Amino acid sequence: MMIKGMRIQALIWMFFFMIANAGLFAQQTDSIPENVKENQKCLKCHGNKYYSYYNDWVEGDVRERMNPFYVIDSAEYYNSNHKTFTCIDCHSYEYEEFPHPGYLRMEPSYSCMDCHGFGDEWAKFNFEEIQSEYEKSIHSQKHNETFSCWMCHNPHEYKISARTEENIKEVIAYDNAICLNCHADIDEFMFIAERENPNVLETHDWLPNQALHFKSVRCIECHAEQSDTLLVAHNILPKEKAVKKCVECHSDNSLLMASLYRYQAKEERNKAGFFNSALLGEYYVVGANRNYYLNLISIVLFGLVVLGIGVHIVLRIINK
Amino acid sequence: MAVKYYFYPLWLRFWHWLNAVLCILLILTGLSMQYSNPDFPFMRFDLAVSIHNITGILLTASYLIFLVGNMITGNGRYYHLNLRTISTELMKQFKYYTLGLFRGEKPPFPINEKRKFNPLQKISYAVVMYVFIPLLIITGWALLFPEITIHDVFGVSGLHLTDLLHLIIGFFVSVFLIVHIYFSTIGATPLSHFKAMFNGWHKTHD
User: Fold this and answer.
1) Is the pLDDT of residue B206 over 80?
2) What does the domain layout of chain A look like in residue ranges?
3) Which of A17, A49, A95, B70 would bridge B76 by S-S if both were Cys, CB 3.0 to 4.6 A apart?
4) In this model, does residue B13 exceed pLDDT 50?
5) Is the pLDDT reported for residue A1 higher than 50?
6) pLDDT for B156-178, tens place per residue?
7) Exposed e or buried b for every residue in B79-117, given b needs 16+ CB within 10 A?
8) What is the topology classification, in CATH, of domain B4-81+119-203?
9) H or E stretch including B45?
10) Chain A residues near residue B179 by CB distance under 8 angstroms
11) Does B108 score more than 70 pLDDT?
C-alpha cells in the first residue's frame, strides 16, 4: 500500500518536472541558431564515426562506418571562424539528398580567396599578400598541385589566434600543431611528399634547450620569411634557408618582435625600461631583454670604479 | 724587515687560477650573450652559450674544491668576520687605502700568520665566495635547466627573475674582479702578490 502511494507521488513529481522542463526545452530550442539546426541534417551522419540508414535492398536499417576524412568535429566547427555558416553555404545543396549523387564527388571546393579576396571586411588581413607570399613558399613551389590553404587552415576547424588570443603560449601551441599535423604525422606527410617525414626532434637536435624553444616559439619564426606588412608570415622557406643564427632572436633587435610578438608589440609599447618588453609576459630571451635602467646603472658604476682606480694609480705614482 | 709566509699551498693556488680563468671566461661569454648583436658579433652566440655552460659546470666543481679545501685545511678561518668590530676596522682600512697609503703610513692591519686578509679583503672575499658565487651557481643551474625554474612569480616569469639576479650578481663579481686585480698591485712591489699566487710565498712590506 505504502509502495503504491510512493509510486503515485513519484508519477505526480515526474509530471510536474516534465511540464516545467518542456518550457525550458522549448526556450533552448529557440535559442539554437538557425545554421546549427540546419547543419544538424548533415552532422547527424558526418558528426559521427558511424551512420545508419534504411536500406531498401535489404529492407532494414544498416549501420556503416563514416569515411574518417568526412567526419566533422562539431565542437571544433562551432568554435571555428566559420561557425556561423551552414554546410550548404560552401557545399552543394544537392548533398541534402541521400544517397548523395555520385557526381558531387567532383564538386570543386571553394578556395579561401573566393570569399576573402575582396571586401573591406578582410582588408586588414591583407589576403592578397598572404596569397603572393604563399605562392613564393616551398609548399606552393614544391607541391603546387596538391597544396592549398586548407592543408594548414582546415575550414571546419581553423580559428585565428595571433590577433585574438592574449595568451602567447596558446598561440604557439595552436600554430605549431598546424605544422606538426603533417610534419609529425607520416600519413599526412606522405600524402603530399611521397617520402617518409624526417623526425622533427632529430632534425632540431642542434637547438639548445630544444623543449623550451619548441614551447616558446612557433616553427614559422625560423622557417618563414618575415614580411613587414603581414602579421603572420606565409612564405615558408626551404629548410636550408631557415634561421639558424641564435642572435637573430637573442639580440636587442630580436626577430621575435617582427614575428611572434608583432601584434603584442604594436599593442603594448616598451614598458618599465625593458627592451622588447612584449617578450617579457611569459618568457625571457637572453640577449633580447635588456633593461635600460640596469644598463645605465651598470655603466655608471663601472665608470666610477674605473675612475676610482685611475685616480688611485695617479696618486700612487705622485706619492711614490 | 720583510717577512715571508707560505699562505698559498698548492691546492689553493690551483683553485685560485682555475677559478680566475673560469670567471673570466664566464664574464666574457656572459657579456657576449647579454649584449649580442648580429652586426658586431663579439663571439658566436651558440659558441658563447656552450662555453658559458661548460665553464659554469666547471665553476661549480671548482667551488666544491674551495669549500672542501677550506674545511680540510683550515683556510676557511681567514674568512671569519667579527661583526662587532668589522665596521670600525673597515673604516680604518678604507682610510689607509685613500689617505694613509699616500702618506707612507704603515698598514693598520699588517699581514701575519693569523691574519692573511685585511678587513676589506676579508669582507669582500667572504661576500663574493659565500654569497655571490653560490647565488650565481644556483641561478646558473636554474637557467641551464629552465624547465625546473618556477614558471610564474606574481605574474612575472620566474626565468626572467632568475636571469636578472644572475646578471646583476655577475656584474658585481665582474667589478670585484677588476678591483681585486688592481689591489693585487698594491704589494711590496706591483707584481709581488701575483708572484705569491704562483710560488705560494707571501712577502710583507719592509
Assistant:
1) no
2) 1-31, 40-78+90-99
3) B70
4) yes
5) no
6) 677 788 888 999 999 999 999 99
7) beeeeeeeeebeebbeebeeebbeeeeebebebeeeebb
8) Fumarate Reductase Cytochrome B subunit (1.20.950)
9) helix B45-73
10) 305, 309
11) yes
